[in-house]
Amino acid sequence: MTKQPPSESGLKDLIVSHIRQALRRYTPIDLARTLSAQYNIPVKLVRRSIKALLEENRLVYTHLLGHSFLEISYRRPVDVGGGVILAPADAACQPAPGQVWIRIAPGAAFGMGDHATTRLALQLMSWSIGEQNFLGDVTNARALDIGTGSGVLAIGACRMGFGKAVGTDLDACARVEAAENARLNELGNRVQILVADLNLLSGSFSLILANLRYPTLTALRDQILELAAPQALLILSGFREHELPGLLAAYASDRVVHLRTQVENAWAGIAMLKSA
Known about the structure:
By secondary structure, the protein is α/β, with parallel strands linked by helices. It folds into two domains: 8-72, Orthogonal Bundle (Arc Repressor Mutant, subunit A), CATH 1.10.10.10; 108-274, Vaccinia Virus protein VP39 (Rossmann fold, 3-Layer(aba) Sandwich), CATH 3.40.50.150. Helices cover 35% and strands 28% of the residues. It contains nine helices and twelve strands. The radius of gyration is 20 Å and the shape is globular. The chain starts with 7 loop residues before the first helix and ends with a strand. 38% of the residues are buried.
């Protein structure tokens, strides 16, 4: 039996999903040929859908060394998973029940949502705080985002119910942008952005977020556990899937329970619970 091609909307979703999950960048013709071969869809049909996605601003071109590549567009609201919607500053906000909207202005800081590690951290946060409700009522609890970048994770924590969040970063530009994004989300009085000296922080945190590379995550292990309150959630991302065993070994302890792992494009993120 001949397989029927997907509907127009189904093909568009397939194209977006393929780009999001791809381990490499695609030019339009490369993507059309790849999907045509994999799903027996005419190349012309795929290219027509790519053109429509560009016109709808769901995809954008990036240019490198004379080539034009397709990327997910963050010039319009995008669901990054777990009901978390990342939106540009001027987007109309119409959240559906259960959705979490975060506005992020374009800037130089890492963490707009266009990288898999940011999405993984947001998805794990939504799962552990919202779906599984490991922490219960977090209205009076504090979250810590180490290496906050654009501030998206600290903002997300407050959007998911945390009373306060602290974001730290070494980069002065990132700190300015993160503070501006907090104000953009009307959270300027709840999100505090500081220089990244963890030794100067006082008290403990019920949620610790760290979207950092593997060597940094392992080096900060003792400080992260020291800053984590009893029954605190730890959400780590920014490392490669093949580094997962080493990271789990580094954090292995009778005080730490591994809750969940998520992977995207060979990047990984984990949620853990500090039991005491």
